[in-house]
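Tutorial, part two.
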Amino acid sequence: MASIDDLDLDADHLREECGVFGIFGHPEAAAITALGLHALQHRGQEACGIVTFDGARYNSERRLGLVGDTFSKRDVIERLPGAQAIGHTRYSTTGETILRNVQPLFAELAGGGFAVAHNGNLTNGLTLRRDLIRKGAICQSTSDSEVILHLVARSSREKFIDRFIDALFQMEGAYAFVGLTNHMLVGARDPLGIRPLVLGELDGCYILASETCALDIIGARFVRDIENGEVVVITKEGIESIKPFPRVPARPCIFEYIYFARPDSIVHGRSVYDVRKRFGAQLAAESGIDADVVVPVPDSGVPAAIGFAQAAGLPYELGIIRNHYVGRTFIQPTQSIRELGVRMKHSANRAVIEGRRIVLIDDSIVRGTTSVKIVQMMRDAGAKEVHFRISSPPITHPDYYGIDTPDRTNLLAARMSLEEMRAYMGADSLAFLSVQGVYKACGFEQRDPLRPQFTDHCFTGDYPTFLTDVSGEGAKQQLSLLAEAS
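Running the prediction step on this input gives:
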């Protein structure tokens, strides 16, 4: 019998990363940051925070829950004075969801305060943390993001930005940082550009954000992507670009296009919406099927389903209706009543489904438990045939760069063949987009095996960096001795 989590169509998707935002020199910095975080809410729904600097002191509000639950209140914004601000919306990949892990994190250093927000995951974060604690550091959180505060504090370099870069050189993995000091807003992107970061401008003030949709919501102008391995320093004098790392080709995360980024964002010059439609069209070319109607799994499967339907010459219909006004499913006393709770969030549109051959389009399959329920939902609504099509390749390897994937034994595609997966789901047929198809849809002739254009290890097992914590001593470390009520 499925658990209540299995009945939520969102429960078996990859969990989001985090969203970061920063603005320098605007009199309404906190309010603008709150709006920016609202646009980035899809990147993390567990916690959020804003830190501002008013010229004399830092002001911080960090809360569990959604951005709108806290930062839509006037009194909260009024407690965040200052023309400089950074913000963070969080989904935890390292560390528990407790208040002491909520970002931005803050520390008082010899030269003043330093607040930092981080999207990504350090693959040597636990190892660095262990070494820092051995040398006397006191860690207050269980987040790998706290490491940068200690590394900056311990650097022997004189200028802050040199200390910040010194810290970056000790890190492995994926990161997009925004940081705030007494005099500057600083941003940094990892040498491969795995995690995204963009530069914008509003009323002459520079902005750093995870996605362009955060600029659109406040009417800001998109300036450019922060380059892989680039550090930007924003002060009253303007903006300075520093490129301390050896130049290598960028290798951004392919999942920004498949799932994470909002469809209205532009990522590395490509419209996310257009790329997802091309995924669907390529999927139709690779695994088209004789059917009556194309149905998306809402909401992430919608653009690919449109592309599939257009390429296949089939009608596109909303065969699954999502209720956007329902939060967490009520806790019900019996299993039979729990199973009815799924209909509060998603229900089959029988008028579209009954008696028809359905092509279901989803963006990915992780554990596969939800896919079983989706197929059964179509059967219960009277579908004649159910053909499942996935607009990404099979996920066969876990992620260590900020995406919450299960270990490999819990990834359906890692332990089952295509036919076994089809039988497990109860579909009439099952097909995934090929790895080469992903690259073709993104405008490349093929994947370069020597220098892959994307970070795609979840499909290929080709990890782009060292994974020190996975095999090293850091993997065995207990993160915290303190149990804290959430």
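The chain has 19 helices and 21 strands. In part three we will examine how such features are distributed along the chain.
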